[in-house]
């Protein structure tokens, strides 16, 4: 947990700001397989926002690094505030949606990514114990619920001076 002392004596809490992308094609979701503490886990392409990087550009970069694909987020799936007790860290995740008409396969550029997989919801659920965090399934379920309702959060709702 990051706490910064200000000249005014108050404390500011700063969660880890991250981005992720629900990438979907024909009811299948693109997940990355990676090693975390020697264990194979599955996640959306995701990672930390870097200094001087706007949120949408961070999502594009993470997708490229983790999948090898140059894709652009189409809209925001949701914003998630998550505490991961096993490592005592808080995360603020901005999750985006990328909907594709046809399957694409890239080659991950990030050495920590083993490979990518296209999974149906049932296949994701079968790997629930191997998901990097509960946010993986939360983001997919929110995507499915929002799609059914016709809800899309436009990228224009994210403002940046970067």
Description:
- With 162 residues, this protein is α+β, with helices and mostly antiparallel strands.
- It has a single domain, classed as Alpha-Beta Complex (Nucleoside Triphosphate Pyrophosphohydrolase), CATH 3.90.79.10.
- The chain is built from three helices and nine strands; from the N terminus they run ββββββαβββαα.
- The strands form two sheets. Strands 3, 4, 5, 6, 7, 8 and 9 form a seven-stranded mixed β-sheet that branches. Strands 1-2 form a two-stranded antiparallel ribbon.
- A hairpin with a 4-residue loop joins strand 7 (75-84) and strand 8 (89-100).
- The longest helix has 16 residues, at 134-149.
- It is globular and about 50 Å long.
- The mean pLDDT is 92.
Describe, in short, the structure shown.
The chain has one domain: Nucleoside Triphosphate Pyrophosphohydrolase (Alpha-Beta Complex), CATH 3.90.79. 22% of the residues lie in helices and 40% in strands. The protein contains 3 helices and 9 strands; from the N terminus they run E-E-E-E-E-E-H-E-E-E-H-H.
What's the domain count?
A: 1
Query: Helicity, in percent?
Result: 10-25%
Radius of gyration: 16 Å
Counting helices, strands and paired strands, the structural category is alpha+beta
| CATH domain class | Alpha Beta
Parts with pLDDT < 50 across at least 5 consecutive residues = none
| Assembly annotation | single chain
Based on Cα principal axes, name the global outline. globular
**Helix and strand sequence:** EEEEEEHEEEHH
CATH topology: Nucleoside Triphosphate Pyrophosphohydrolase
Name of the CATH superfamily: Nucleoside Triphosphate Pyrophosphohydrolase
Continuous helix count: 3
Strand content: 35-45%
Biggest pleated sheet: 7 strands, mixed
